[in-house]
Batch of 4 targets.
Target 1
Amino acid sequence: MDYEEKVDEMCEELPEKVRSRLVDRMEDEDLSEAEAEELIENTKEAYDKCKFEPGEAIGVVSAQSISEPATQMTMRTYHVAGSAQGVEITQGLPRLIEIVDARKTIKTPSMDVYLKDDYQTEEGAREVANEIRETKMLDVVTEDRIDLLNLVVEFDLDTDSLDNIGLSEEEVISNLNKGRRKYEAESEDGMVKIVPKEDDISVRDLQKMKNKVMDKHLKGIKGISQAVVTETDGEWSIQTLGTNLKKVLKVEGVDPTRTVSGDPREMQKVFGIEACRNTILKEGHETIMEQGLDVDVRHMMLVADTMTVDGEIKAIGRYGVAGEKGSVLARASFEVTVRHLTEASIKGEVDELNSTVENVIINQTVPVGTGMYEVSYNPQTE
């Protein structure tokens, strides 16, 4: 059966892109004539549901469709399912607010790190996770003490932790002795000694030195405190707490074509504004769906488009989308009314009354639906 001819016969109103995908699917599945007709009818019905009427207030509908279910969202976090060492990530309403506010610093930044085929084993995934996870001195120390007689600080190393991480005692000493410091690190029978360079040193100074050494970076990427290995549908991946996308993409074994950060601003910085837009859409929609709320993805798409349409990420708020509206009355109706009206008066701004909010304020027909058009009757006279 000629599927393309069948599609042309039954649905001329479908866009060319939809029709070509429909034909491809029918050819792949080798459908019978009855099955092809059923698929075409279902596609036409789905396409009709996707359309909206000219003049429909899609902005208001999207805002209402997202905000109303958001009142049912919880103020809680969750742990990654199926993992004994779950990464705790902000979810629910706090996460949604983070996304639409385009926060520069999010509460629990995270990354989904995907691996290349050569590392698709548990051992390979753990090897990459050890390269990514930041290891500090406090992670490999079982006991610390201050020797008041000799005025030195001593650390007992956890050899099992060192083996799991892939660090040797010599590498620990080498890392501790890097940079400008007021001490010299030495190794002695599985113990690390921190010897101050100054002769005249107090116990308080030793305590400060001990705390500084405990916070010393030994291995991995700074800022990534956890890297949990997970398996989903036979594929190994890593979820992190903390993010540094630019450096993670350079780690051997990481698939740079799929690895993403949950921070839209970082995605914009590394991949560009389109990746930022996709992150807002993905994170926002997943946050809503995880709460068991059914919101059409196109509402979130409109929000993501609005936030990134100018090539820069903007918040939905007084310092972003709402604060940059062309209408004086629309800006004034949102927040800080007096300031907006005063500034507009000083600048001599004119409100063209082109949108919904300002027309509601002055009790005038809003340019929505039938209000968008002026219809006049001109009877024909003989």
Target 2
Amino acid sequence: MQELSGLGKFLILFGVIVILIGLLLTFLPKIPFIGKLPGDIYIKKDNFTFYFPLGTSILLSILLTLLLNLLFRK
């Protein structure tokens, strides 16, 4: 039964991650600055649109790094 303890912890963590992703997808359009940060690349021509959220990606990367370092610190 001891080996199932690790699997149980993994499934709980996976469930929490899925819930957080679901909440993000639900409330992300309502956050005003996401996708409109300085550094986000947006090019619109006649019938061509290119969008690359560079600034947003960097911000999310920093926030996730800090969060995961706090959670998994030994």
Target 3
Amino acid sequence: MRAATEEESALTKTLTRSRNDRVIAGVCAGLADRFGLSPLTVRVLFVLSCLLPGPQFVIYIALWIIMPEKKD
């Protein structure tokens, strides 16, 4: 059996909200952890996406409700 690469392990992580690096609900930090990105990068992308029309806040609130908190 071969060892999982960093990319494969990032794709198999569970999507959970962060408890340690949260600003509002931990959604952006949880997404960053899941996809191997910086939480700051995900937050900046979210804020920039709010300049475009669309349901960004609705999606954020839905993820806040749906994503379980990370159990440390």
Target 4
Amino acid sequence: MNTMKNILKLLEYGFTVLSLMLYTGGPLTVIVSGGVNEGEAEFYQGSDNTVIKLVFLLIYFITFLLLVARWKKVIYTLSKDKYILVMVCIAVISILWSYAPEATITRSLGICGTTSFGLYLATRYSLKEQISLLGWTFATVILLSLLFAVALPKYGIMGGIHTGALRGIYNHKNVLGKMMVISTTIFILQALNNTKNRLLIYLGLSFSVMLLLLSRSSSAMVNLPIIIGLIIIFHTWRWRYEVMIPALIAILTLIGSFYLWFNENSDVLFGAVGKDATLTGRTEIWAVVWNMIWKRPWLGYGYGAFWFGGDLSYEAWYAAGWRAPNSHNGMLDLWVNVGLLGVFIFVFSFLKTLVNAFICLRYRNKSQWFWPLIFIVYLILSNLTESALMLQNDIFWVLYVAVAYSVLIPTEESINTDKVIHFSKG
């Protein structure tokens, strides 16, 4: 009996790791595309994603069965925060006013399945277990990315306008860069609170940084030092009040000084990472999308309808002067998808999660409680110049849902929440 339980548990862990890897965007997308590169006509025409859709439908189905098996905890967890559920309902209902109903039907099914998987992570695994599973996921991503680069360079290394940049198991170097920022963070958190497998953890950390650099993703290279700095800064949140408050004031002063310096030297800094003041055309597409938003400000154009490839997309591409795959800003894409109503609901959800993440970090002394706050900050950073907010079959939405519910679920550590954890400066 115990043997059967262990086998089922192992199979469930395997399903979770495999699904997490697929939600990161690899390796099916780059394989199905035939390894096309940005700048090639095929890159913009898209490819037959039937296999990918079938794989994710299978993941949705298995996830549904696993949620049903723990339905009491699922209902309890959903009752603690209804904002995410309301957002998903708005996406589904937007079929009624969608500019492209066929796109909204397909993609709203995807966001339901993606949200369900995030809920499954939160209700099935503790935060420590989630980080462990993410560690195994990114270890697999690293191994496969190295294999693709060496044995299948057509798929693993970019050609075209980004010739020589590593993309691993993804269809673009920037995706690999984003994933390696998360991977580096996960391995750092494991190193802070793990006395076992330290060699494997440090290997994972080293290869994560190496792949990030080889990807030549400028946004990832900027975001990683910020995330590492925040891990250090957030330690002050656990200090005694008489030490914490002066430290936070000093940190905020330094951040303000850096912001002023950055504004004065932004052109030089952008040039150093190969960007211009328009962030490679992003500011132009932002202006175009902003104008389109005000034509349907309250409910948007329907979930997933704006960039579906119809008249709306072509109008935006023509006005911007280039074929953008999205708005390159998460909040703008959320707005065109579900309108100002959806944006307000997300902001409420985000602020609630942010406050809970701060509370958990303050009163729970394990390193895994850095993860909710770090991820939330990275979610903000990654959505400033890219779009990774409430997307179907996307790891960022999976992790946001998992984090939002995980900080609400009672743990053994939360029994003595009245006791403040004191950390000395030394």
